[in-house]
Amino acid sequence: MRFGLSEEQTLLKDNVNRFLEDNMPLDKVREYADGGSDASIWQGLSDLGIPALLIPEEFGGVGLKPLDAAIVAESLGHHIAPGPFLGSAVMAPFALSNSPDGFAEVLSAIATGEHRVGVAFGEAIARRNQASVNVKDGKIEGTSLFAFDADADSYLVADQSKNMFLVSADDDGLSRSNLTTVDRTRRTVELTYSGASAKPVSTDSSLFDRTLDIGRVMLAADTLGAAQSMLDQAVEYAKQREQFNRPIASFQAVKHMCAEMAASLEPCRAMVWFAAHALSDVPEEARLTACHTKAHLAEVGQFVSRTATEVHGGMGFTDLLGLHYWFKRIGANRQWLGAPEFVRSEAAILQGVD
Amino acid sequence: MDLSFGPEYDDFRSDVVNFLNNNSDKAPKGGDLRGEQAKDWQKLLIENGYTCRTIPKEYGGFGAEPDIIKSRIIGEEFSKSRVNPGLGGQGISMLVPTLLEMGTEEQKQKFIRPTIHGDMIWCQGYSEPGAGSDLASLTTAAVLDGDEWVVNGQKIWTSTAHLADWIFCLVRSEPEAPKHKGISFLLFEMTTPGIEIRPLVDMTGVANFNETFFTDVRVPKNQIVGERGQGWQVANAILGHERDTLAPPNTAQTRINALVELMKTETAGGERLIDNPIYKDRLMKIQGRVLAMKYNDMRVLSSRLNPGQDASLSRMITKLQGTELRHELEGLAIDIMGEVGLSYDDNPHLRGAGSWQREYMYYLGLIIGGGTSQIQKNIISERGLGMPREPKIEKKAV
Lengths: 354, 398
Fold this sequence. Notes:
- The complex is a heterodimer.
- Chain A is of the alpha+beta class.
- Chain A has three domains: 7-112, Orthogonal Bundle (Butyryl-Coa Dehydrogenase, subunit A, domain 1), CATH 1.10.540; 117-204, Beta Barrel (Butyryl-CoA Dehydrogenase, subunit A, domain 2); 207-350, Up-down Bundle (Butyryl-CoA Dehydrogenase, subunit A, domain 3).
- Chain A contains 13 helices and nine strands.
- Chain A has helices at residues 7-23, 26-33, 39-47, 66-78, 85-97, 104-112, 122-125, 205-240, 252-281, 283-311, 314-317, 323-335, 340-350, and strands at residues 117-120, 133-136, 139-148, 154-158, 164-168, 174-179, 188-202, 242-243, 246-247.
- Chain A starts with 6 loop residues before the first helix and ends with a helix.
- By secondary structure, chain B is an alpha+beta fold.
- Chain B folds into three domains: 7-87, no CATH class; 122-229, Butyryl-CoA Dehydrogenase, subunit A, domain 2, CATH 2.40.110.10; 246-384, Up-down Bundle (Butyryl-CoA Dehydrogenase, subunit A, domain 3).
- Chain B has twelve helices and ten strands.
- In chain B, the strands form three sheets. Chain B has a four-stranded mixed sheet with strand order 1-4-5-8. In chain B, strands 2-3-7-6 form a four-stranded antiparallel sheet, with no helix packed on it.
- In chain B, a hairpin with a 2-residue loop joins β2 (141-145) and β3 (148-156).
- Chain B is globular and about 75 Å long.
- The N and C termini of chain B lie far apart (60 Å).
- The interface between A and B is large, with 49 and 53 residues.
């Protein structure tokens, strides 16, 4: 019995972390937040083989498992890196490689990082503003709100009945407009369809559910990494900052805030590992664990991001330290792909309670 | 990630299950420590290696090599089938491991066998009215007079002192030494003249705790574990044993399942409480936390099996998180029942034999006992996160 990462997984984690430490310092985060491009960071991650991780070997991928992807998601969250990882490296490869229709060509292009796929699932989860997606005779009409990755080459779109389609961003029947959100480390768009061609990916609602599960676990892993970074920064700041002639880290009030963050966050690591592992290896527990992990990390993330900011005092509230980028990213992860109350209600339904 | 224990352990698990199927009718139902049935059951469990498993045969144990997976399987199967897992108490769980590590050969021969067979019941004399979280400031004095220690002072929270035959007790034997270096670990009989016990009723209505007073209690010189002044190290070895057992995650799992059942059967205004969206959300929230602690526990187990894996922080937070979680879980059951949740003792509307109220209060006790939540947070921040201790305040001159 071994609960934890293998040597290869630890190596993967170290490689991604090293790359991001070198290439994703805070000024790069700011650059992207102010309208810069994520092309070079995505290129670098592609050189490391990240978009190919989950794609089966027959389509030019590496054929690894969700746990490997979760390790990458955690690192990306830790460094609040931009890029289309969630859609392009995880959800789209998962849906397309499990689709009964062949997507070999797209998958091969995704694997190299040259083709980016975004995700527009909101209308199938908890649709807002009465937005809806309607596909008839291969043509798509309607709107998807808050699709992620503004710069995608195509979008994996779900309608209200959990049917999934692939729509090309080049299609004249698709227009997209950027939606400004508090999270400046990733960009969301509104997609408006007027007769673009929609290639069917799946009419099997269980494939949609499993695609959603893996996406949720990745968001949880992203939050885990981002929250861990905030806790580390808070502890470090408290050790440096002096008031009343002593480091504030020696005050029990401050120590207890940090201890509470660590005590809530540390079990989340094991939870994210298990949830990711269950997606491939413990199918009977996978859905319930994915729901709980998404919701639990949303709550712990909210607590840690608020408390870590507070430990920094007034500086935490300013733009100077950039702490707010982590705070907002954790906030966005909470809302995306199902807010915690919705996800917990799904968890109840899975146990025969509705 | 490899969650399987392997075929050898599957066989072991079915042995345990078979044993339980064939013998569980012999197990005592209540918690009577002195009963013959309890002792016979204990004997049977030791013979089969289902309790006191790693205690050497020469001291009355089963004599197996330590194997944490087997111990875990035994724990899981006994808990699943709700069969009495054998005698507990501080003698078996805390004193015996300490004697095995620090005791003399004579002490091991004399104390371990009767303790694990239920013929010698122990209580623990650590805390004092003036030494709780700051245990090392204890003042119960032991002065050597010829071949005997003369003990004077007062202990508090001495669980089962009124039932115990013997006590293991921390005393100040070197008043001039720094506080952690002036303590010794003594063993003595509760029938020794000069001991007075006063029961201390807790908020659940039970008098399990006591205040214990010592007036010129004479203890033979050789009834000390470790050297003079080494008592603090001896005690710390035991506190480690204690903390690990305070909030086991598999019992939280059992309790949340019971809570789901309760919410499916209880109604308010004709509506099942599980259908109330607010209660349902609170339930799911707690279930998520129970799961997080379950996986955290698997990680801790794994780190004990695989050298090189580090789960020290996971282990450090278990007592804090586990006890707070259980307190909230039991509290939710009370909340959903409204006035019915207040029922206690002989109330005809009692649910779950009163366990929800009892455990709710009991876990508040555990949040405080065995190192309070606040002490746990000090430990986590200092040893886990490397934050500095609070500056010491100089002791006032008397």
